[in-house]
Amino acid sequence: MHLSILKTYLQQSLIFERSFTAMMNPSKYERQYFMPPETSLDWTKKEYITKAPTWCSVDLRDGNQALIIPMSLDEKVEFFKLLVKVGFKEIEVGFPAASETEYTFLRTLIENDLIPDDVTIQVLTQAREHIIKKTFEALKGAKRAIVHVYNSTSVAQREQVFKKSKEEIMKIATDGAKLLKRLADETDGNFLFEYSPESFTGTEIDYALDVCNAVLDVWQPRPDWKVIINLPVTVQLSMPHVYASQIEYMSKHMKYRENVVLSLHPHNDRGCGVADTELALLAGADRVEGTLFGNGERTGNVDIITLALNMYTHGVDPKLDFSNLPELTKVYERLTRMSVYERQPYTGQLVFAAFSGSHQDAIAKGMHWRDEKHPEHWNIPYLPIDPHDVGREYESDVIRINSQSGKGGISYVLEENFGFHIPGKMREDVGYTVKDVSDKRHQELVPRDILKVFKEVYVNIDDPCKLKEVHFVQKDGGIEAEISLEKSGVPKLYHGKGNGRLDAVSNALQRHSDMHYSIVTYQEHALNVGSNSQACAYVGVQEPNGNVTWGSGIHEDIITASVLALISAVNRLDQ
Ligand SMILES: CC(=O)SCCNC(=O)CCNC(=O)[C@H](O)C(C)(C)COP(=O)(O)OP(=O)(O)OC[C@H]1O[C@@H](n2cnc3c(N)ncnc32)[C@H](O)[C@@H]1OP(=O)(O)O
Ligand SMILES: CC(C)C(=O)C(=O)O
Ligand SMILES: [Mg+2]
């Protein structure tokens, strides 16, 4: 029996081993990107992005075309309004020639006057005559719009998809550019143009430059009529510094540069969409196309929320409002049927959560330090952004308790949520008690669970001894205490003398038992629970062997609270 289990195990491990080695064959890959013809590394001398770029949301087009079920008309209208609320001034609303919904959506925006005066809509079209014509038809009556035309220029697309020479591909671009110009002249409205050499990152850089310059020669941009050249990372093929160098080269050599808005449109295949964008902005780009939460084809477009908040945490105004990310997330998830990953920067459920003890300790201390010394500055350890700035709560989002947590975090939760100021020396004991519960239950503990554990273990413990009454008289410069207790159901009366009330009670308890201890810590404070104000006391008693046992008492009367704390500690000792 044992032998057959061992055999199966060995067979399975062999299959597992093989499945991990057989598939990987790096020799079948070659780098498919192109370095610019000359070194372009001025961007390396810049440290950070000092000014927000022009943002263009492509959620309703690139994001939408990547959804399992593209948004309905009503959903697109709601999403458009959301983008306007966030503060986008340029919004690519769709690909009007793609479907009836896309077409009708554009007509709905125009006919119902849903486009604010300070917002410019943008529409995408292939560089194909009938598609461009349909696009202009859909734009009738628009006061102002960017018409965005694209064609693929990469080696792979030229060879495999279009089967055309460089000259023929350039002609697709310039023919498209000419048609845009003609139709814009023939149609009422203020039209701006954008051209994308799609698959730019798989295109020889000097060729991409020639194509863009040829389009610019057709359009002849002017200071009062700038055009957008968008250099997309349609597919991410290189490391971010390569893209930055490509952008710097294009920016330096592009004709009419002062009348060109240089735009980025990064995707995220290698997980570097944000890095590509940030470095390319240092390299001279003016504008960024991206989406909320990075939704988009395959691994997505660049996430504008991350870009904007990265800037924000460097002290730069991103000119977009992400102060209520939880609400934004809800609406986004409902409309797109996508879900936001728990670790999505700035947004995910867990991005502010510190479960581990040392992080919690540092955060809790950092919060106190900030309150006392620098309330208007944010540099709390482990929290690069103030959760409040994006609509999150310290209480529920930051310090979360499980078996990895520590005394600092657990005390912080008890203090912030319930007002307990646990003495420094007692914290370790409470910390181990609480995390042990989490470990055994294999569960996170929410604040009310932690309160329950704290109360059950430390507060007003009445087994075996339950306090019935306590009276004090002052005598001979000291205090005499008479305590009525119920021990295991039997009433008992204890007497003792001491320097103070607690001392007298402690002496009384020790006189009538074989317990020996001394009080090493006593602390108390008012505890505001709802409208009632109660007192909370903490007592630590030390046995001759050095062990310290803790108890806590809560009562309206401060003296009774302290006696209850002592009895709790003594009961725990007895238990
Ligand atoms: C990287 C990007 O995100 S680009 C945007 C991609 N988005 C979309 O495609 C979503 C919307 N698209 C659609 O609904 C459809 O593709 C339509 C309506 C635009 C066009 O539909 P169709 O003509 O039926 O199909 P399709 O797009 O496959 O057309 C392929 C043809 O167009 C050519 N083509 C594709 N893109 C372009 C372009 N940008 N410029 C010029 N020609 C192009 C292809 O070479 C091919 O030519 P062929 O007929 O000679 O083989
Ligand atoms: C249409 C273009 C700009 C695009 O979406 C891309 O290249 O990713
Ligand atoms: Mg794209």
From TrEMBL:
Recorded superkingdom: Bacteria
Cofactors named for this entry: Mg(2+)
Entry binding sites for Mg(2+): 62, 265, 267, 301
Residue ranges the record marks as coiled coil: none
EC numbers, comma separated: 2.3.3.13
Subcellular location: Cytoplasm
Pyruvate carboxyltransferase domain segment(s): 53-326
Region (Regulatory domain): 461-575
Catalytic activities: 3-methyl-2-oxobutanoate + acetyl-CoA + H2O = (2S)-2-isopropylmalate + CoA + H(+)
Alphabetic keyword roster: Amino-acid biosynthesis, Branched-chain amino acid biosynthesis, Cytoplasm, Leucine biosynthesis, Magnesium, Metal-binding, Transferase
InterPro entries referenced in this protein's UniProt entry, alphabetically: 2-isopropylmalate_synth_dimer, AIPM/Hcit_synth_CS, Aldolase_TIM, IPM_Synthase, LeuA-like_post-cat, LeuA_allosteric_dom_sf, LeuA_N_DRE-TIM, PYR_CT
Pathway(s) served: Amino-acid biosynthesis; L-leucine biosynthesis; L-leucine from 3-methyl-2-oxobutanoate: step 1/4
Pfam families associated with the record: HMGL-like, IPMS_D2, LeuA_dimer
Primary location group: cytoplasm
Function description: Catalyzes the condensation of the acetyl group of acetyl-CoA with 3-methyl-2-oxobutanoate (2-ketoisovalerate) to form 3-carboxy-3-hydroxy-4-methylpentanoate (2-isopropylmalate).
Cross-referenced HAMAP family: LeuA_type2
Similarity comment: family membership: Belongs to the alpha-IPM synthase/homocitrate synthase family. LeuA type 2 subfamily.
Assembly notes: Homodimer.
NCBIfam families: PRK03739.1
The name this protein goes by in its record: 2-isopropylmalate synthase
Organism of origin: Anaerostipes hadrus
